Amino acid sequence: MAKLYERYRDKGFEVLSVNATWDKEGPARKFVEDYRLPFPVGRDGSGAIGSAYRVDAVPASFFVDKNGILMERLDGSPEGDLEAQFTRRIERLLAR
Question: Residues in the chain with pLDDT < 50?
Answer without folding.
Answer: none
